[in-house]
Amino acid sequence: MPKGGYRQPSNPAPVSGPGQLSRRTDGGPGGKQPVRVPTGGDYGDATQLMGLQQAAPLAATSGGDTATPAGLAPPTGPAFGAPTEQPDTPVTNGADLGAGAGTEALGLTPPQDDDLQRLLRYLPVFEHMANQPGSSKAARNFVRSLKGMM
After folding, report:
1. Fewest CB within 10 A of the end CB: N or C in the chain?
2. What is the pLDDT of residue 9?
3. pLDDT at residue number 64
4. Is residue 71 domain-resident?
5. pLDDT tens digits for 70-103?
6. Cβ-count burial 44-63 (b if 16+ within 10 Å, e if not)
7. Where in the chain does DSSP place strands (E)?
8. Mind listing the pLDDT tens digit for each residue in 41-72?
9. Does residue 128 sit within a domain?
10. Which residues make Cβ contacts (< 8 Å) with residue 14, sequence separation at least 6?
11. Is residue 134 part of a domain?
């Protein structure tokens, strides 16, 4: 990778002239996407969008590399509409209604231990803390998880 020193420009004009003699030194808009403005919207939106696109044109490429990295494969699953792989399991398995096991089969019910009971006594304090302006997302999620354990 070259560092410092003179670099020969790959575009047509190494230096621009003054005023009316000026030329683009970046090769011009040849490799840029065309300006596309959607129709509809409020009055003046199209002009604003056109100006924004002209101020910062996008490259003509479609974007980043979308190839799957070596050694990784996208997850595969059954095709949509394929027959079930568990014909003896009811659709309502894991729900608290219908045939099959209830939500206890999911293993999501937290144990009602002594520490949890102590924390639940302070739930009003935690709720007050989470409802303050500038409260963190973690504080709000903590209160939600405590309420979910009740």
Report:
1. N
2. 63
3. 58
4. no
5. 777 777 888 888 888 888 988 888 888 888 888 7
6. eeeeeeeeebeeeeeeeeee
7. none
8. 888 888 888 888 888 766 666 555 566 667 77
9. yes
10. 8, 25
11. yes
Structure tokens at 81: 């509409």
Sign of the CA dihedral with 83 first, then 86, 89, and 94 last: negative
Q: Which of 38, 11, 45 is nearest to 25 (CA)?
A: 11
Give residue 127's pLDDT.
92
Task: Identify which of 4-13, 31-40, 67-76, 91-100 has the greatest average pLDDT.
Answer: 91-100
d(CA 21, CA 15): 11
Q: For residue 5, what are its two tokens?
A: 């020193």
- Residue 23: both structure tokens together: 């030329």
Residue 141 lies in a domain: yes
Nearest to 96 by CA among 107, 104, 88: 104
Helix%, strand%, coil% for the chain, nearest 5: 35, 0, 65
Report how many domains make up the chain: 1
Alpha helices (H) along the chain? 45-55, 114-121, 123-130, 137-148
Find the domain containing 118 and state its range. 112-148
